[in-house]
Protein: Cytochrome P450
Amino acid sequence: MTVESVKPEAQIYAESELREPPVAGGGVPLLGHGWKLVRDPLAFMAGLRAHGDVVRLKLGPKTVYAVTTPELTGALALSTDFKIDGPLWESLEGLLGKEGVATANGPRHRRQRRTIQPAFRLDAIPGYGPIMEEEAHALTVRWRPGETIDCTSESFRVAVRIAARCLLRGDYMDERAERLCVALATVFRGMYRRMVIPAGPLYRLPLPPNRKFNRALADLHALVDEIVAERRASGQKPDDLLTALLEAKDENGEPIGEQEIHDQVVAILTPGSETVASTIMWLLQVLTEHPEHADRVAAEVESVTGGRPVAFEDVRALRYTNNVVVEAMRLRPAVWILTRRAVTDTELGGYRIPAGADIIYSPYAIQRDPQSYADNLRFDPDRWLPERAKEVPKYAMNPFSVGNRKCPSDHFSMAQLTLITAAVAAKYRFEQVSGSNDATRVGITLRPHNLLLKPVPR
Ligand code: HEM
Structure:
């Protein structure tokens, strides 16, 4: 799967032609649609298209606009009338910093994207191959037949290690990657809680969970400072993302400030680890739930490698494995909800959107929509064969988004996810053990509640 940025084929509407989006049904007095969004957010988002292409939701006293069609989510992501903002981003900013690429807008964002982009370019990815390979195989060596794999911690561990070792290279990284893992897992759990239950003062009380969260957040920031300080002290300038950040200049050609360097490292490491970790958990769940597809992956790996350990260079040839990854991302997208804010009075699909309006859409709903996918809930990797993939409507499968906020890491992520899937499926079959719960846990990302697996050697 490739994801291209394209210009929207915008239709021009006269002001008099603009319509008010309908209010979605099912709201209740005072709470509006909020209770449904909290109770079962995935079903709620997936049901909205029946109410219109753009619908208004009442969340308490606030009106939020939801976009429900692939075409209009593409138009939203590609239009300059909308910026990154809204409750999701405000809560992330408060905790992770205001000066990183994920939350910046306008000229600062464009400059920051230019700084980080080279590290993620297609031709930079083979440079990370040896680390990705090493980490993928390390997983299969760590796992012992008969022992239980805690997929949450294992997936976080490998995701953080790959991001940290590839992008912030250095011998010092091994021990730090472990600390980063622990800190990030706690921070993400706490952040989601703070977002869905915005009980501000409660989180300031010296209760054990708050203390644990604050310690993890402080450690995350301290770790980033240590990584930056150590790199500076080493006097080394390897060709990596950290060097690019340390050497970056602002709009006036001046070195960027310490806070921005810090926030940039945080803004790259945090989304990078949570999304990849969640996707690895789903891939392990898929290999367990669909042994027939796991067997096909193992057979493909065998046919490509002839039995030697799978290598980074094999990734391009692992077409079926890649399609398993894409199909897992379609049905279980790590990033299930995205928000924007209108910077001006504007429109989407002929519906009036006022300046300042918050807009949400759900890649989960878009990627499961029966209007876009035949047999929409069936796990079918072959729907990504070239002759079938062309039937998929434009923007109906964009797990990395499109436009100027598109994830910079699509090639980086797909390479590691394909490699990890190939390495683990070639060596093991998996069974869920007692106590495992693979139901979907809705947080900042989607992932299984608590996936516990037993690896059985092939
Ligand atoms: C399965 C893996 C991943 C998925 C599904 C994913 C998905 C996304 C999506 C959908 C966005 C756009 C958000 C929006 O439109 O509001 C995004 C942005 C971003 N992602 Fe990823 N991502 C993944 C992995 C990574 C990794 C590994 C990194 C870094 C190491 C990363 C760094 C970022 C950054 C920095 C942004 C902000 C870009 C900007 O605003 O210009 N992501 N990601």
In short: The chain has 16 helices and twelve strands.
